[in-house]
Amino acid sequence: MANKKSVRVPIRLLKIEQNGCHPVVSAKLNNRSIRMVIDTGASQTVFDKSRIEELLGKDALERIKILSAGLGTSKMKSMLVHIEKLKIGEMVFSDNDFVVLDLSHVNNSYTLMGMKPIDGVIGGDILKRTKAVIDYGKKEMVLKKP
Q: Residue 71 in contact with residue 54, Cβ under 8 Å?
Protein backbone atom coordinates (compact mmCIF):
# COMPACT_ATOMS: atom_id res chain seq x y z
CA MET A 1 0.00 0.00 0.00
CA ALA A 2 1.42 3.38 -0.99
CA ASN A 3 1.55 6.33 1.39
CA LYS A 4 2.91 9.90 1.16
CA LYS A 5 6.45 8.57 1.22
CA SER A 6 5.86 6.10 -1.58
CA VAL A 7 5.04 6.35 -5.25
CA ARG A 8 2.95 4.01 -7.40
CA VAL A 9 4.23 3.56 -10.93
CA PRO A 10 2.08 1.77 -13.53
CA ILE A 11 3.86 -1.01 -15.42
CA ARG A 12 3.06 -2.65 -18.74
CA LEU A 13 3.86 -6.31 -19.19
CA LEU A 14 5.41 -7.05 -22.58
CA LYS A 15 4.75 -10.63 -23.60
CA ILE A 16 8.03 -12.36 -24.42
CA GLU A 17 7.95 -15.77 -26.08
CA GLN A 18 5.19 -18.10 -24.85
CA ASN A 19 4.97 -17.59 -21.08
CA GLY A 20 7.46 -14.83 -20.29
CA CYS A 21 7.09 -11.10 -19.88
CA HIS A 22 9.15 -7.98 -19.32
CA PRO A 23 7.78 -5.23 -17.05
CA VAL A 24 8.17 -1.81 -18.67
CA VAL A 25 7.63 1.67 -17.24
CA SER A 26 7.40 5.09 -18.80
CA ALA A 27 9.86 7.59 -17.35
CA LYS A 28 11.27 11.03 -18.07
CA LEU A 29 14.93 11.80 -18.71
CA ASN A 30 15.48 15.54 -18.34
CA ASN A 31 11.75 15.97 -19.15
CA ARG A 32 11.86 13.78 -22.28
CA SER A 33 9.76 10.60 -22.38
CA ILE A 34 11.60 7.27 -22.31
CA ARG A 35 10.75 3.55 -21.89
CA MET A 36 12.61 1.39 -19.40
CA VAL A 37 12.51 -2.32 -18.59
CA ILE A 38 12.52 -3.26 -14.90
CA ASP A 39 15.19 -5.92 -14.42
CA THR A 40 15.58 -7.32 -10.90
CA GLY A 41 18.58 -9.30 -12.10
CA ALA A 42 20.49 -6.22 -13.31
CA SER A 43 22.87 -4.85 -10.71
CA GLN A 44 22.74 -1.31 -12.09
CA THR A 45 20.45 0.99 -13.99
CA VAL A 46 21.80 1.43 -17.51
CA PHE A 47 20.89 3.48 -20.56
CA ASP A 48 21.20 2.65 -24.23
CA LYS A 49 24.18 4.36 -25.88
CA SER A 50 22.46 5.37 -29.11
CA ARG A 51 19.41 6.73 -27.28
CA ILE A 52 21.52 8.77 -24.81
CA GLU A 53 23.53 10.18 -27.71
CA GLU A 54 20.26 11.15 -29.40
CA LEU A 55 18.82 12.75 -26.24
CA LEU A 56 21.92 14.36 -24.75
CA GLY A 57 24.61 14.34 -27.45
CA LYS A 58 27.81 12.33 -27.79
CA ASP A 59 29.70 14.76 -25.55
CA ALA A 60 27.54 13.67 -22.58
CA LEU A 61 29.26 10.26 -22.50
CA GLU A 62 32.41 9.60 -20.49
CA ARG A 63 34.39 6.41 -21.14
CA ILE A 64 35.33 4.41 -18.08
CA LYS A 65 37.88 1.63 -17.81
CA ILE A 66 35.69 -1.13 -16.41
CA LEU A 67 33.89 -3.88 -18.24
CA SER A 68 30.25 -4.63 -17.60
CA ALA A 69 28.95 -8.17 -17.73
CA GLY A 70 25.42 -9.33 -18.42
CA LEU A 71 22.53 -8.29 -20.64
CA GLY A 72 22.94 -11.37 -22.77
CA THR A 73 26.54 -10.68 -23.73
CA SER A 74 29.97 -11.45 -22.38
CA LYS A 75 31.78 -8.29 -21.34
CA MET A 76 31.12 -4.84 -22.77
CA LYS A 77 33.01 -1.56 -22.58
CA SER A 78 31.15 0.88 -20.38
CA MET A 79 30.56 4.60 -20.39
CA LEU A 80 29.01 6.94 -17.85
CA VAL A 81 26.50 9.70 -18.31
CA HIS A 82 25.50 12.36 -15.81
CA ILE A 83 21.72 12.67 -15.67
CA GLU A 84 20.34 15.87 -14.19
CA LYS A 85 16.84 14.46 -13.68
CA LEU A 86 15.37 10.98 -14.03
CA LYS A 87 11.70 10.78 -13.12
CA ILE A 88 9.99 7.42 -12.64
CA GLY A 89 6.35 8.04 -11.82
CA GLU A 90 6.54 10.87 -9.28
CA MET A 91 9.92 9.67 -7.95
CA VAL A 92 12.75 12.00 -8.99
CA PHE A 93 16.43 11.06 -9.06
CA SER A 94 18.58 14.19 -9.41
CA ASP A 95 22.24 14.57 -10.38
CA ASN A 96 23.22 10.92 -10.77
CA ASP A 97 25.79 9.15 -12.90
CA PHE A 98 24.55 6.07 -14.75
CA VAL A 99 26.22 3.40 -16.87
CA VAL A 100 25.69 3.54 -20.63
CA LEU A 101 25.91 0.39 -22.74
CA ASP A 102 25.14 -0.61 -26.29
CA LEU A 103 21.71 -2.21 -25.91
CA SER A 104 21.23 -2.71 -29.65
CA HIS A 105 21.10 -6.51 -29.23
CA VAL A 106 18.17 -6.12 -26.80
CA ASN A 107 16.39 -3.64 -29.05
CA ASN A 108 16.98 -5.79 -32.13
CA SER A 109 15.24 -8.66 -30.34
CA TYR A 110 12.32 -6.41 -29.42
CA THR A 111 12.04 -5.21 -33.03
CA LEU A 112 11.97 -8.81 -34.29
CA MET A 113 9.07 -9.46 -31.89
CA GLY A 114 7.21 -6.39 -33.18
CA MET A 115 7.84 -4.27 -30.07
CA LYS A 116 9.17 -0.76 -29.59
CA PRO A 117 12.78 -0.40 -28.42
CA ILE A 118 13.68 0.52 -24.86
CA ASP A 119 15.86 3.38 -23.68
CA GLY A 120 17.27 1.69 -20.61
CA VAL A 121 16.99 -0.81 -17.80
CA ILE A 122 16.05 -0.04 -14.20
CA GLY A 123 18.37 -2.19 -12.11
CA GLY A 124 19.16 -3.15 -8.55
CA ASP A 125 20.72 0.17 -7.59
CA ILE A 126 17.41 2.05 -7.91
CA LEU A 127 15.24 -0.91 -6.92
CA LYS A 128 17.17 -1.45 -3.67
CA ARG A 129 17.46 2.26 -2.81
CA THR A 130 13.69 2.70 -3.15
CA LYS A 131 12.73 -0.67 -1.60
CA ALA A 132 10.78 -1.35 -4.79
CA VAL A 133 7.86 -3.76 -4.79
CA ILE A 134 6.72 -5.03 -8.18
CA ASP A 135 3.10 -6.22 -8.17
CA TYR A 136 2.36 -8.13 -11.37
CA GLY A 137 -1.30 -8.58 -10.41
CA LYS A 138 -1.94 -4.85 -10.01
CA LYS A 139 0.52 -4.01 -12.80
CA GLU A 140 2.35 -1.47 -10.68
CA MET A 141 5.66 -0.86 -8.97
CA VAL A 142 5.72 0.87 -5.59
CA LEU A 143 8.83 2.90 -4.76
CA LYS A 144 9.58 4.31 -1.30
CA LYS A 145 11.31 7.66 -1.11
CA PRO A 146 14.84 7.18 0.26
A: no
